[in-house]
Amino acid sequence: MCVCVSLQVRVIPVQLQILFARLLLLNQQSCGVDGLISSFGWTNNEELQQHDVQELNRILFAAIESSLVGTRGEHLIGRLYRGTFTQQIVCQSCGHVSEREEEFLDIPVALTGRAGLQQALREMFNETELLEGDNRYHCGLCDRLVDARRECRLRKLPPVLTFALLRFLYDFKRGERYKDTSQFKFPLELDMTPYGCCSHGNKTGEEGERGGGEKISYELYSVVIHGGSTHSGHYTAYIRDFDNLGSWTHPDEDPVQLPTDEKTGRVDYIEFDTPTELLVTLLRSLGGSVSVDKLCKNMQEKTGVTWNKRFKKQFGSIHQFLRSCPDFFVVDDTKRVSLKMTTPTDTPPSPMETTAPAGDVRVEPMETAEPVADSSPAPPANTFCQDPRQDVAPHGDKETATASGTVEDLSTDVSMESTASEGHGLSRIEAQEQVPSSSRDSGGRSGDQSRDVGVVSKDFVVAMETEGSKSKPMTSKWKGDSKEPPPPGERWFHFNDVQVSPAVVRSLEKVYQGKESAYMLFYRRKRSQLPTQGEGRDVVGSVPEWLQSKIAGENEKLEEEKAAYDIAVNTIELNVHLSSSYTFRNGALHHKEDPLVTDAMVTAVSIDRRKTVSDLETTLEEVIPDQVRGHVISVARRLPAGMHIYDNISWSKHKTLRDLQVLDGSNLFVWDGEQVGGVGIRTGTACEPVLLRVTYHSCEESGGVEEGEEEEMEIGRPKDSTLGELRVLLASKLDVPVQQVMISQVKVSERSKASRVVVLHCSKDKLTLEQLKLCDGDKLAAEASTKKGIKTLAHSVADRQNNLLSVIVEDRCSPHLSDSTSYPVHAMEVVRDSLISTFKSAILLQLQLSNIEGGGRLRLDDECPGPPLHEEQTLDQVGVVQGHCIILEPGPPPTPSQLVLRCRLSSGTKEWEVTVDEGATVAECCQLVVLSAGLQGNQWHLRRTNWCGEATEVLDDETSVLSKENLKSGDLLLIEEGKLPPKNFVRLAVSLFTPSYPTCTPAYLTDPDLTSGLLSWVMDSATVGVDINEQGFTHDGDFPRVDPNEVPLHLQSPAQFYPGLPGCLVGLDSIEIHRDSTIEELKALILTLPALGGAVIPTLDFLLRVREMVNGRLGKVFKNPQQTLRRNKMETGSHVCVTVLEQEETLPATAIVVHIQARTPGRRSYGPAAEVIYDCNRSTKPAELVKLVSRLVQIDVSHLRVAKHKLESFEWIVLQENYNKESRKKKKSKSTAANIKNSPICLRDGDTLGLKNLQYDPEDADDFSTESDDRGKEILTAVQEEKRRKRKLKSTDLLDERGGANQRPRRTEVGIKIFVPDYKRSS
Predict the structure, then answer these.
(1) Which region ranges are annotated with the description Disordered (predicted)?
(2) Quick one: CA dihedral 1131, 1137, 1141, 1145, positive or negative?
(3) Residues 599, 605, 610, 611, CA torsion sign
């Protein structure tokens, strides 16, 4: 009764007890944790979320403590895991000690800059931190800031000591977390005595109890491993079996074999994974020493592939590779290569003695618990990983590895003497298990592709030794006997989700560093004496009886389920055939041509495959009596030619069916073992029948001039029969002499898929069908020898076969598939030049379809479905090739004069098809598309698209027919709102631009009065510092500024920081004008607009300057009044603006109209703009333009700096004579003369030039930027960073954060929780 109450109240401890008892006693490979998860109160799949194991450890301990409140085990966690340490601050002035004691369940250990656990403990608990300078301590006794000393000391140590290695860090520069995979060592035995606070008279907890300075030793018993990255990973663990509960076998006990061919049993050289293993194997077969050329030749003979073709791209030339592996190969001056490992007298060095290049991580010697007084080197058996170059510890303590201090100590018990003694010299390779430096990444970790860079694995060496000696597999031995396990209490096991496997101590060295590295360490107080075999703690006896009986019941149920499972898995069904029902013809066994003999007479027998052949015979005698006695049972198989008999299993009566590889569904043939129907039967694989399809003429005269009808027959022949025997058989069929029978094979080329004829001459009559590589279904042509010039039967068959297409038909017309998204497919053969209508009729006939809506139509599905096919075309004309898929769907087929066009709204993504006559006009097609889309009105037009569906030119000639517009079936058209102008007319938007500066003409270049006027306009306002927001660089009204706190930078538009127009822009109206009209005619038409009706204009030249507007900015000025709109590339939707001039102007074609603005000294702003017209016919050098501007603003050239503003990038290009240009081919910079019309200046109409007077603004002469430029650059940078972030996110998924190509946002990290009832109130 008490037990039931405990089960109901103390759920978590009981579920933990049940789980561990099941792991110990249940006869099952794994145990479920549903009960434990339910006890945690998890209902939303919390167990599937990824959490930190250290966090789970602390929360689980807290939950257990809360669950045990009010019981005898209330302080269980505290007694086992809780320790205390003190933080002391000692005032250097008065000696006052401020002390704070804290408890811990685990000790966090930072890895950065620390080689191992003992160094970290010394820095944490033995070193003192001085608080001085800006970091001084406020002493409560002195009441002021004083120098002080801070130190941390352990006060009480728990029986189980836990260390949490802080491998996850945060990179503040990159703004992301990362995993520290650097090397961090830990010992097997840890002495904690030096890390107490004995210097102040205090002793650690157990030390105080023991009295005196007794050594406090801990021994490692568990290591938790984390494999993966910061965002995903997997935990495994190494656990030491102190209680001798596990069955330990050496993990290297299974022999490893070289890759061999199953048929020949020889070494299959092509199967070697790395070039090192391949070269070592080849050199051993060649005696261990050979020239490089002979080695390459031998490699090509053995593998069929040369070094250059297989390895050069990854490893370089063979000479380079051999020299890069000095541990295995020796290359002398005569280019002769030898195996370095063939020297049996070499002493096997330590793996750590291998010199590593700079940047590689080298396995360092582990730090020991205590310094050793004797500095002499330890014996080799105890210094397996000791580096002779590292004799001094980081703090000057000279340490030597002791037998009890390091992981390496126990690993050296593995003896290598047997390897060296047998004379094969493999001990060097067996000792060198480290990955070469070429396979390590920048962090020094061993890469995942270690086997791809030529590493000889230990398994390979063991296999080589086995191959060479042929005596016994070479495995690692423990103290002279390979089967002897480690001493009790020193056996390790590796736990993961798949299995629990034995592990050697040396395996712990692999988790010092890398992606799979140690994450938590568990030490327990060392016992005075380890238990011997069979003397371990009685763990089973500590399990309550009620729990033992419960698990015993589960074991009984498991045994019953296992027995039922074994029966279900091993029960096979065999098909038994009786020889009385079969006859032998055409090279194989067939059912007798008797209506009473059917497949129903085949007897099905179920039997356990673990039973013997004798048991099978007994079963068959019960099922079919009087049919088995006196007969033999053979395994048979159905082949295309018929039934064929293989092995006779009656001779192996005591073997099981599993040993004889009798599988489920196998066919068994019961016969007398010699004949079937009086005909002797050959059995076995060598005489398998091959079914050949032979085409011949039913009758023909000698010479082959007159031919009969073609016929095709199937012939089954044993594959070990000769071509001559087949020729004799065909001669009797053709009724011609054997010498006149010509046999040809019609073969299909694997590349071109075309059929070709191969004549099988009489010289090949002694070859077998297997040697000729004839297979089931091969086509042969048999005929009498023909005269030259007469087409043979074989060529006729090949031509007919070449004219056949094998296609896949997808049926979308079946009535029961109307709501399905998966359609059945059928394979069909059709003549290449067949009409689409004929092919469709053949499909309907084969699929037995009728009454299809519209008669049905076909379309070609080549990656994406094409348009419906015209039925008057042939398959060749529409581009059908071998293997194409053709869709049969409801609907009427288009006629030859119709086009099927795809349509889509310019603002949508849904597409639909319309069928229109190719003689229809663009207007009629547009009306049909509008009706099919359900749109209203006539304000619509059509636009073409390119190959990727992007909008291109408008179909503006509404009277043109579709055939003249080069539209084809399957083209995609966009429908857009807006009515088109008449044919050859364009609709232009017209605006009036009134500049805020006096209009300027070429007269400014010579008229001193006008020059002084421009000077006063530009420079005076700059000198007084006109505000940029009033007349200078203002933002465009079309791009309102947004609050950066409301919208992220990468979502803002940089156009809001473009400089505003230097004037006022007012929209007038839109006009329609012929495409071939001149600029002069455009000006005349603009005069007719109502907005300019009151203007008094003497002449057109005096009236207007017309220019293009591009994206709301002033663009190209139309200078030649006789140029047409077509020449200036004006299209419907283009925008032009006009400016009323004060003086008549006639600009040459080489003139450039730009704006200049003077920079306000001491401010990052500019004054109002002015206009300058420069004629490039004078010079295109930047110096000439600078001189002109200098003369206009009356500033000396030496004091004037001019730069062009690049609008899209918010940058300024200073005008200078030369620019450094980088050559793409040679990747060198060279100085080139500048041209204002070419890159990088590219001066065009409407550009802005900034002016800086260095007399008043001497600082940073090349800096012309404004605050708006900075804000615009910030937006551009944010946009680029966002793109880079998305690309990185995508590439990270494709590599090994392994989320997949379609990135899903990571879940928000939520802390793990375990829900525990409040037992304090209930108690």
Answers:
(1) 367-488, 1278-1309
(2) negative
(3) negative
Give CA torsion, residues 1009, 1013, 1014, 1015, to 10 deg: 100
Tally of CA atoms within 13 A in the half-sphere of 685 that contains its CB: 0
Residues in contact with 806: Cβ distance below 8 Å, sequence separation at least 6, in sequence order: 827, 828, 829, 882, 883
Contact 799, 781 (CB under 8 A): no
Q: At what angle do helices 53-67 and 11-25 cross, to 10 degrees?
A: 120
Report the distance separating Cα 696 and Cα 710, nearest Å.
6
CA atoms of 851 and 836, how far apart (whole Å): 19
Residue type, 335: K
Token pair of 376 as six digits: 């002499």
Give the integer Cα–Cα distance in Å for 66 and 1317: 8
Give just the sign of the alpha carbon dihedral 11, 14, 16, 19: negative
DSSP for residue 193: G
Enter the pTM of the model.
0.49
What DSSP element (H or E) covers 605?
Answer: strand 603-608
> What does the pLDDT look like over 947-972, one tens digit per residue?
878 888 888 788 889 988 889 999 99
Rounded CA gap, 878 and 868, in Å? 11
What letters, b where the CB count within 10 A reaches 16 and e where it falls short, cover 433-459?
ebbbbebbeeebbbeeebbebbbbbbe
What is the 8-class DSSP label of residue 735? T
What is the SS3 string spanning 1156-1175? EEEECCCCCCECCCEEEEEE
Distance in angstroms (rounded) separating the CA atoms of residues 91 and 98:
8
Please count the CA atoms within 13 angstroms of the CA of 314 that sit on its side-chain side.
Answer: 13
Residue 998 phi/psi, 5-degree rounding, is -65, 130
Looking at residue 1274, the DSSP 8-state letter turns out to be H
1208-1255 pLDDT per residue, tens: 889 999 988 877 665 554 455 556 778 888 888 889 999 999 998 888
The predicted pLDDT at position 261 comes to 55
Give me the DSSP letters along 1288-1318: HHHHHHHTTT---SS--PPPPP---------
The answer to whether the beta carbons of residues 373 and 348 sit under 8 Å apart is no
Between CA 390 and CA 377 the distance in angstroms is 12
CA 1098 vs CA 358, 1095, 1104, 1141, 1252: distances in Å? 85, 10, 11, 11, 40
Task: Decide: 943 and 952 in contact? Cβ < 8 Å.
Answer: yes
The span from the CA of 1252 to the CA of 1221, in Å, is 26
Integer Cα distance of 1182 and 1197 in angstroms: 12
Tokens standing for residue 1085? 């038409």
pLDDT digit string, tens, across residues 756-774? 889 999 999 999 999 999 9
Alpha carbons 345 and 341: distance in angstroms, whole number: 10
* DSSP strand pairing (689-697 vs 710-718): antiparallel
Q: Where are the alpha helices (DSSP H) in 899-1007?
A: 922-933
Are 1078 and 1119 in contact by the 8 Å Cβ rule? The answer is no
* Residue 240: burial class (beta carbons within 10 Å; 0-12, 13-18, 19+): buried
Q: Which amino acid is at 825?
A: V
- Cα gap 996→1171, rounded to integer Å: 10
What pLDDT does residue 80 have? 92
Structure tokens at 53: 């194991």
Among 752, 769, 802, residue whose Cα is nearest residue 687: 769
331 beta partners: 337
326's tokens? 């000095």
Distance CA 557, CA 28 (A): 11
Handedness of CA 816, 818, 820, 823 (dihedral sign): positive
Structure tokens at 739: 């010498």
Q: Do residues 1131 and 1108 touch, judged by C-beta distance below 8 A?
A: no
Amino acid of residue 916: V
Which residues, 6 or more positions from 643, have their beta carbon under 8 angstroms from its beta carbon? 577, 582, 588, 589, 590, 636, 637, 667, 669
